[in-house]
């Protein structure tokens, strides 16, 4: 019977990839506490398990010498063999739960050592179970992850890593990013039921999920030719990604969008229809802000580097597009650039621009050899059209510039 127990332990260690000596030592410590209680041994017991036969030996610890006057404890003990005749039965009863705990903790420790180095990596898993508070995802055989989506009003200390509106079905394959791996040796659990929950925590709302998805879909991003400089997300609704290229001959936005939008469409499909805007990053803050507010057209950007504020002036018909629904476009642009953005239309900003020194105004970038029409209306707003080649004005105002307008209002009748 004893040899059968050792064979069973050996098979268990091979299956769970656990050190057999470690398991036996832990089992000896657990049995020592159990026999000390069962046999009523005041100073405890020491248990040894024969590595070959599996026989259990129990020794009572009998103190010798004098106790420490400060601590009241003994430092030396004699061991007296008190092995009961039914050690195998008692050992089996008390070892069952301990073996399960040892196996579970050893498996969690192996997962922690492997995946704690992979925080920030993307994983693909299969949905095993969905509860109102979290979803269990199977990464591989014996390794599971948790996607928490707790109600923040009821459990403010918990996470909510599921985009609004997403629901998962059984055996559905999803991608997520690893954001945390719980340490099994931690003595202070930070969330309720942590010991019974999978040690790996994943997210589908983290901005880095977009980075990893573009690495999977865009070879130029994976190779480092195109760099994702900044990401701003409102999970499940809309995101902005700013990219730049290390090769002047390569268009980073076109590389990320792909032929007919095929690459970005794959990312959008994985994010369940979340709108993704890919914009061009620039080291010039004014150009970066103008690009981040895409698809709105920007007339001018005024940067205050001391306060980190950017005043953006847009055409009157672009104001609502620049701000976005409930301020979404402006909010994402601010997160993307790290600047506070104040958007004004040209009508309201006419007085500000009139008094502002020309050198502090960053003009909208145009191609070399082109410039805007120089016509300025009575309200102080410059025409938004491009000038004709070889002329200072656009086609609309080119002839008006040479016409002398009478100051008599009746002459216009």
From TrEMBL:
<dbReference type="Pfam" id="PF08529">
    <property type="entry name" value="NusA_N"/>
</dbReference>
<keyword id="KW-0806">Transcription termination</keyword>
<dbReference type="InterPro" id="IPR036555">
    <property type="entry name" value="NusA_N_sf"/>
</dbReference>
<protein>
    <recommendedName>
        <fullName>Transcription termination/antitermination protein NusA</fullName>
    </recommendedName>
</protein>
<keyword id="KW-0805">Transcription regulation</keyword>
<comment type="function">
    <text>Participates in both transcription termination and antitermination.</text>
</comment>
<comment type="similarity">
    <text>Belongs to the NusA family.</text>
</comment>
<dbReference type="InterPro" id="IPR009019">
    <property type="entry name" value="KH_sf_prok-type"/>
</dbReference>
<dbReference type="InterPro" id="IPR012340">
    <property type="entry name" value="NA-bd_OB-fold"/>
</dbReference>
<feature type="domain" description="Transcription factor NusA N-terminal">
    <location>
        <begin position="4"/>
        <end position="109"/>
    </location>
</feature>
<dbReference type="InterPro" id="IPR025249">
    <property type="entry name" value="TF_NusA_KH_1st"/>
</dbReference>
<feature type="domain" description="Transcription factor NusA first KH">
    <location>
        <begin position="204"/>
        <end position="281"/>
    </location>
</feature>
<keyword id="KW-0804">Transcription</keyword>
<keyword id="KW-0889">Transcription antitermination</keyword>
<dbReference type="Pfam" id="PF26594">
    <property type="entry name" value="KH_NusA_2nd"/>
</dbReference>
<dbReference type="InterPro" id="IPR013735">
    <property type="entry name" value="TF_NusA_N"/>
</dbReference>
<dbReference type="InterPro" id="IPR058582">
    <property type="entry name" value="KH_NusA_2nd"/>
</dbReference>
<dbReference type="InterPro" id="IPR015946">
    <property type="entry name" value="KH_dom-like_a/b"/>
</dbReference>
<keyword id="KW-0963">Cytoplasm</keyword>
<comment type="subunit">
    <text>Monomer. Binds directly to the core enzyme of the DNA-dependent RNA polymerase and to nascent RNA.</text>
</comment>
<dbReference type="Pfam" id="PF13184">
    <property type="entry name" value="KH_NusA_1st"/>
</dbReference>
<keyword id="KW-0694">RNA-binding</keyword>
<feature type="domain" description="NusA-like second KH">
    <location>
        <begin position="285"/>
        <end position="348"/>
    </location>
</feature>
<dbReference type="InterPro" id="IPR030842">
    <property type="entry name" value="TF_NusA_bacterial"/>
</dbReference>
<dbReference type="InterPro" id="IPR010213">
    <property type="entry name" value="TF_NusA"/>
</dbReference>
């Amino acid at each position: 019977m004893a040899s059968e127990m050792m064979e069973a332990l050996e098979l268990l260690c091979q299956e769970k990839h656990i050190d057999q000596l470690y398991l036996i030592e832990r089992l000896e410590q657990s049995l020592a506490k159990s026999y000390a209680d069962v046999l009523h041994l005041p100073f405890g017991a020491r248990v040894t398990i024969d590595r070959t036969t599996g026989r259990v030996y129990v020794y009572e610890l009998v103190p010798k010498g004098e106790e420490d006057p400060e601590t009241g404890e003994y430092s030396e003990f004699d061991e007296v063999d008190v092995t009961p005749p039914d050690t195998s039965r008692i050992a089996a009863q008390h070892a069952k739960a301990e073996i399960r705990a040892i196996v579970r903790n050893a498996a969690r420790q192996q997962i922690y050592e492997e995946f704690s180095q992979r925080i920030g990596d993307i994983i693909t898993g299969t949905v095993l179970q969905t509860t109102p508070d979290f979803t269990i995802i199977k990464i591989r055989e014996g390794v599971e992850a948790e996607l928490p989506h707790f109600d923040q009003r009821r459990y403010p200390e918990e996470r909510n890593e599921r985009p609004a509106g997403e629901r998962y079905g059984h055996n559905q394959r999803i991608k997520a990013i690893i954001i945390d791996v719980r340490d099994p040796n931690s003595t202070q659990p930070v969330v309720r039921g942590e010991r019974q929950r999978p040690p790996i925590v994943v997210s589908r709302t983290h901005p880095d999920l977009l980075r990893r998805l573009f690495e999977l879909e865009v070879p130029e991003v994976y190779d480092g030719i195109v760099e994702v400089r900044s990401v701003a997300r409102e999970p499940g609704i809309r995101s902005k990604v700013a990219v730049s290229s290390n090769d002047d001959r390569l268009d980073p936005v076109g590389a990320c969008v792909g032929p007919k939008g095929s690459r970005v469409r794959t990312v959008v499909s994985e994010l369940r229809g979340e709108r993704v805007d890919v914009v061009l990053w620039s080291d010039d803050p004014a150009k970066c802000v103008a690009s981040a507010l895409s698809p709105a057209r920007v007339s001018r950007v005024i940067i205050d580097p001391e306060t980190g504020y950017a005043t953006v002036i847009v055409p009157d018909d672009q104001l609502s597009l620049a701000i976005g629904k409930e301020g979404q476009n402006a909010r994402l642009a601010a997160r993307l650039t790290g600047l506070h953005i104040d958007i004004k239309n040209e009508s309201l900003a006419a007085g500000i621009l009139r008094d502002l020194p020309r050198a502090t105004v960053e003009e909208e970038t145009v191609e070399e050899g082109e410039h805007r029409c120089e016509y300025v209306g009575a309200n102080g707003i410059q025409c938004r059209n491009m000038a004709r080649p070889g002329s200072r004005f656009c086609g609309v105002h080119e002839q008006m510039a040479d016409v002398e307008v009478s100051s008599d209002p009746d002459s216009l009748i």
